[in-house]
């Protein structure tokens, strides 16, 4: 009688451990999906910020360009036009980031790095896996539950 009870108890414990493992994997998948959603929202905020910055900086650049050009003509000093050059680079960069193809080019370059320069991206000790995490958890655990 005790053997039968022990056998069913052992089987129930095994089923419970399998259920817990499946739950942990499901939770990990959900966390990965959530992290991706957060990343996408952060990228959308960055693009939106760039577009807003472009609008304000464009207004500043227009006023500065007109004022500097008028000052250069009035005082007959072309040196007044020099600040327009670096300001135009910033304006062009912000336009490209907000409305142009900069993000697609960056994504393409990142994919190229992932394909051709993989060794530069490797973590020390290799990729973290579920099994590595479980092993570390078992080693640090104060309670010995599973062997």
Describe this entry's structure for a reader:
With 147 residues, this protein is mainly alpha-helical. Helix content is 78%, strand content 0%. It is built from 4 helices and no strands. Helix 1 (2-75) packs antiparallel against helix 2. The radius of gyration is 30 Å and the shape is rod-shaped. The mean pLDDT is 90.
Distance between the termini: 26 Å
Number of strands: 0
Shape: rod-shaped
Helical stretch tally = 4
| Uncertain residue segments | none
Instruction: Specify the structural class.
Output: mainly alpha
Average pLDDT level: 90
Largest sheet: none
What is the radius of gyration?
30 Å
- Report the helical percentage: over 70%
Encode the helix/strand succession as letters: HHHH
Indicate the proportion of strand residues: under 5%
In short:
The protein is an all-alpha fold and 147 residues long. The chain has four helices and no strands. Helix 1 runs antiparallel to helix 2 (84-98).
Outline the fold blueprint.
Blueprint: H1 2-75, H2 84-98, H3 102-116, H4 130-140
Question: Main attributes?
Answer:
single chain, 147 residues, mainly alpha, 0% strand, rod-shaped
């Amino acid at each position: 009688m005790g053997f039968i009870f022990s056998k069913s108890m052992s089987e129930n414990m095994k089923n419970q451990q399998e259920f817990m493992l499946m739950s942990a994997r499901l939770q990990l998948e959900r966390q990965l999906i959530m992290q991706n959603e957060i990343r996408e929202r952060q990228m959308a905020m960055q693009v939106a910020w760039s577009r807003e910055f472009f609008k304000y900086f464009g207004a500043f650049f227009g006023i500065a360009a007109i004022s500097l050009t008028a000052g250069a003509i009035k005082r007959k000093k072309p040196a007044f036009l020099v600040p327009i050059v670096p300001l135009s680079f910033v304006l062009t960069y912000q336009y490209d980031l907000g409305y142009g193809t900069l993000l697609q080019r960056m994504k393409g370059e990142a994919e190229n790095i992932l394909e051709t320069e993989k060794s530069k991206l490797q973590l020390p000790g290799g990729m973290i896996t579920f099994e590595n995490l479980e092993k570390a958890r078992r080693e640090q655990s104060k309670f010995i539950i599973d062997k």
